[in-house]
Amino acid sequence: MTSPQERIRPFEARDLDALLALRDRCFDGLDLDRERVRREWAFDRNPARVDGVPSAWIAELDGEIVGTYGMLPALVAIDGRPTPAICGVDFCVDERMRGRGLGRRLTGAMVETAGSNFRFITSPTAATTALMQERGAGVVDAAAEGALFARPGSPPTESNPPGITTRELSAFGSECDAFADRLAQHHRFVTVRHADYLQWRYREDPYIAHVTFGAFTTAGNLRGLGVLTLSPTEPQAYLGELTTEPGDTDAARALLVALTTAAHERGLEAIFALERRPTIQPQLVECGFQPVPTGAPEPVLLLRDGEAAPSDWFFTPGDGDFLFRIGSAG
Ligand SMILES: CC(C)(COP(=O)(O)OP(=O)(O)OC[C@H]1O[C@@H](n2cnc3c(N)ncnc32)[C@H](O)[C@@H]1OP(=O)(O)O)[C@@H](O)C(=O)NCCC(=O)NCCS
Q: How many domains does the chain have?
């Protein structure tokens, strides 16, 4: 059992150095200078930030920070309504203090945080998942769903379906807001891809480069968004977004042509995708992707005061820190 002196409290700005020192002890390869910049972008400049909601919970013992659970603000459409949500990140407990229930208490604080009901974690460890399942979370079995795909960086052999054009986007406008609202009609839980979110997520990311495309009808209406997220260290990328309405296989196909062309032009050797929609998976195979049988992440989702079936959740790797563990160290 945890001793009563340990206090769980909201993060305050003065905790930053000690918090980073704790995370440095718990996770390999953290670059603290970059981490400060990343945090400023991820938490302070996040358009989903809600005043009064802390960016993390802190476990403190005798004035020392011994545990944390970070809370990345997110805006998720739940049953069609944009609703504040939390993506759990940066969860860790000092090695000396593990196995005494502190992780469970931090999980409780994260889940019970006032002001929102939806929680998700995109690349949890087994212990993190187990602690969330105790609170009623659902788990996406991406391997069983055959959702992980890979493709070499070779040029596409497919061409665009008639009536759809794609172009690289350097800014996002009101057509994205309208598209996000349409998308919300198809899924019980879906990140709201309004223009301000896309701008923050894919144009202002301080360390990771993203190539963004829109798919348009001949009349100029937006039918889909595609994002190629480039690995900072390897000649590889993943599809951060392949976002279309579920039956819109033509828009998905056109985006795949654009994304694989962009990868080839950059000399990339491999592209990864995490695609759960049965309507869209065959499009990936036709465009040269092969299913990867193992290694898929198992994201978790939780709705306080309600049921959240994994199949009700539309997410893409860009919603969190999949595949390259981009955006956080856990
Ligand atoms: C994950 C972590 C925060 C847990 O903190 P903790 O204080 O040790 O957690 P608790 O003592 O509250 O409980 C851990 C529970 O998870 C369980 N658990 C541990 N490893 C597990 C695993 N591989 N699979 C399932 N459950 C596991 C434990 O059995 C324990 O449950 P129990 O009390 O019923 O035995 C801590 O181990 C840690 O900092 N790990 C390194 C960083 C990390 O991996 N963070 C997660 C990134 S997503």
A: 2
Half-sphere exposure of 186 (CA within 13 A, CB side): 16
CA distances from 11 to 65, 133, 252 (A): 10, 25, 41
Protein residue with its CA nearest to atom 8 in ligand 1: 98
pLDDT in tens, 239-279: 999 999 999 999 999 999 999 999 999 999 999 999 999 99
Residue 103 CB contacts under 8 Å (≥ 6 apart), including other chains: 67, 91, 93, 127, 131
Residues 208 and 250 in one domain: yes
Looking at the structure, tell me whether residues 118 and 154 fall in a common domain: no
With a Cβ cut-off of 6 Å, ligand 1 is lined by: 26, 91-93, 98-104, 124-128, 130-131, 330
Tell me, yes or no, whether 34 and 114 share the same domain. Answer: yes
**Looking at the structure, do residues 131 and 174 belong to the same domain, yes or no?**
no
Q: Are residues 93 and 177 in the same domain?
A: no
C-alpha span between 235 and 49 (Å, rounded) = 33
Q: Which residues contact 187 (CB under 8 A, 6 or more apart)?
A: 77, 312, 313, 314
Residue 177 structural domain: 148-295
Does any domain span residue 322?
no
Average pLDDT over residues 191-198: 97
CA nearest ligand 1 atom 25, residue: 127
Note the pLDDT of residue 29.
84
User: Can you give the CATH number for the domain in which 228 is found?
Assistant: 3.40.630.30
My answer on whether 161 and 260 are in the same domain is yes
- Atom 26 in ligand 1: residue holding the nearest Cα: 127
- Which of 154, 28, 106, 79 minimizes the C-alpha distance to 121? 106
d(CA 180, CA 225): 10
